[in-house]
């Protein structure tokens, strides 16, 4: 499964790509990055990793909560924010789906609570090593995984950021 760096890059890509008006605040960009990495918080609860938090159900809950928050704060739902936050959360599912996963069972429970574990046969992302992370073996494995994440997601994030920068209004110049 991708590292937190890979998930954050995917979330940043979503934030920049969905920012049509160049109006995304740093708080919005940070929220997308954190939502993209958040499903892995289930690692803190033994035996729950890649289940509920890695499902379309959990992504739908994020959509509902985001809708409610924007509706309460602005008096109406801000669909740009709702869609971006939902896509940022879904990016975690996509990156995990296209990852090499040596765990048993392999994959994610996309349709939780049903027990089907889904995983692509095409491993775009390399597995990471979470046990003894500072051992030379784990650092070598994680460095390779990080390099692949940067190679795949880095250019996408950069392109989305550059496209967003092009849409920003030009700074006012003094006469």
Short description:
This protein has 175 residues and is mainly alpha-helical. It has five helices and no strands.
Strand and helix map with partners:
Blueprint (H helix, E strand, L loop, with lengths): L3 H14 L8 H12 L18 H19 L4 H19 L38 H32 L8
Helix pairs in contact: 1-2, 1-4, 1-5, 2-4, 3-4
What does this structure look like?
The chain is mainly α. It is 55% helix and 0% strand. It has five helices and no strands. It has helices spanning 4-17, 26-37, 56-74, 79-97, 136-167. Helix 1 crosses helix 2. The model has no long low-confidence stretch (mean pLDDT 91).
Number of strands: 0
Low-confidence stretches: none
The coarse silhouette is globular
Give the amount of beta strand, in percent: under 5%
State Rg.
Answer: 18 Å
Q: What structural class results from the helix and strand content?
A: mainly alpha
Structure annotation, total helices: 5
Distance between the termini: 54 Å
Average pLDDT taken over every residue: 91
Q: Residue share in helices?
A: 40-55%
Strand count, sense and closure of the main sheet? none
Keywords:
mainly alpha
């Amino acid at each position: 499964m991708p590292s937190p760096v890979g998930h954050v890059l995917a979330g940043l890509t979503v934030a920049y790509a969905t920012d049509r008006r160049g109006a995304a605040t740093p708080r919005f960009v940070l929220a997308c990055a954190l939502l993209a990495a958040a499903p892995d918080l289930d690692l803190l609860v033994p035996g729950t990793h890649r289940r509920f938090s890695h499902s379309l159900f959990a992504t739908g809950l994020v959509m509902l909560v985001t809708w409610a928050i924007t509706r309460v704060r602005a008096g109406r739902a801000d669909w740009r924010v709702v869609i971006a936050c939902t896509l940022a959360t879904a990016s975690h599912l996509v990156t995990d789906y296209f990852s090499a996963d040596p765990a048993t069972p392999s994959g994610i429970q996309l349709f939780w609570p049903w027990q089907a574990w889904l995983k692509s046969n095409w491993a775009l992302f390399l597995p990471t090593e979470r046990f003894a992370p500072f051992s030379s073996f784990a650092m070598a494995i994680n460095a390779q995984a990080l390099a692949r994440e940067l190679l795949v997601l880095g250019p996408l994030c950069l392109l989305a950021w550059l496209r967003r920068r092009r849409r920003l209004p030009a700074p006012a110049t003094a006469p």
